[in-house]
Fold this protein.
Amino acid sequence: MGINMIYTNKFGFPDFVQQWLKHDDYDYDKDAISTTTLMQPARAYALKKHHWKELEIDISDLIASRYGTAIHDSVEKVKLTGCKQEERISKRVMNRNITGKYDILRPIAPDQWELIDVKSTSVWTYIYGSKDEDYKKQLSIYRWLSVQNNFNVVQKAKIWMIFTDWSAAKARSDPAYPQTRIMIKEVDLWGDDETLKYIGERIRLFNRVETMPEEEMPECTDEELWAQEDIYQVMKGDNKRSTKNCKTQAEAEEYIENKAEPLRKSLRVNLRKGGVKRCKYCTARKFCEQYKRLIEQGRSEDHEL
């Protein structure tokens, strides 16, 4: 976020709430790239660099992160036995200083450590594994940085997931639902070579993109935008609501083909592209032409920046 962030207060929170939400003790280094920054879309990274002094965020968007900060702070205060906690480490790669702050390094044998990351998240993130790849990338970089700083860290990490939306009633009625508000997920991490290859690829991409004019920047992919799946709608005549939603064109066409005349002739297939979720978290979105097009296409909401 940084010291140049412009804060808005569209819900009119009083000063004491504003002070809490604005408080930021993150240890920024303007010459470094953090692990989480390295993982963000190159277009978002470059637009933020281009418009650094104009970036805005409404303080209401900081509420969720304050929950996460509070949980991390409470874990850090415990001083877990034998563990190293919340230490920032770094390593120079090519022309960049890559940094990361692990949550916990836990000793599991003489001169051997395992990485534990604390996440405050939704139950559905755990059930569907929607962020598993991001977790693997992030923790693989943390592990690699730890190894470069003389810690022998194993290639299997643990994610300590604390659910913000857990329901005791759902746990009682559904055995597949997490039975407690805390679950531990194990993650197999990349090896050193694969991790360094990824870091190098990201640095080369960032170096190239940050000097481009916006019209030449690569657009965020559907994967980077956290896009939902496309839906093939079976529509009848001029109706605005679909008769049936299908996952594939073939499924929709088969549905129509199995209908008798004259109904079959009144049906058609309409592709509705999946909505995207990431834009609302991007502080550079108001400078992004791709974001404006996504709004026009009905794939993203206008957040009035």
In short: The chain has eleven helices and eleven strands. The radius of gyration is 23 Å. Residues 231-272 form one domain.
